[in-house]
Write a sequence for this structure.
């Protein structure tokens, strides 16, 4: 039995408006709350079911090699299950993301696309086959 009922990732971004447009409007994450005030801006976006993946350095290198051909991600990378990873990656690139590598079929049977958001966060977009 777990005491944790929700996982949230808190991103501090340089350009809040750009990040909000990218994650909410282009990627399609539903806005749950806006807790902005006179001291700053914060919006909570629903990203569906959450999970925490823990990698050691060797496995992170192996996944980067599969998805991007080389070690490219930092300590944090967001992975999101989407209906069509190729299409989603193309939409995100059109909205300012950088394609890190072309989409690939992984050994575990997913179609993965790797992009870097305008805020610098790397995203793995995966679609199970």
């Amino acid at each position: 039995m777990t005491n944790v009922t929700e996982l949230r990732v808190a991103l501090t971004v340089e350009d809040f408006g750009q990040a909000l447009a990218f994650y909410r409007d282009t990627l399609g994450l539903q806005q749950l709350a806006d807790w902005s005030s006179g001291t700053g801006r914060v919006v909570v976006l629903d990203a569906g079911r959450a999970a925490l993946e823990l990698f050691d350095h060797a496995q992170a290198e192996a996944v980067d090699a599969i998805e991007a051909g080389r070690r490219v991600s930092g300590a944090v990378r967001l992975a999101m299950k989407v209906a069509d990873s190729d299409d989603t990656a193309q939409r995100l690139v059109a909205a300012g993301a950088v394609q890190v590598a072309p989409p690939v079929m992984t050994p575990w049977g997913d179609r993965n696309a790797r992009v870097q958001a305008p805020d610098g966060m790397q995203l793995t977009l995966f679609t199970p086959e």
Notes: The chain has a mean pLDDT of 95. The chain has one domain: 16-128. DSSP finds three helices and six strands in the chain.
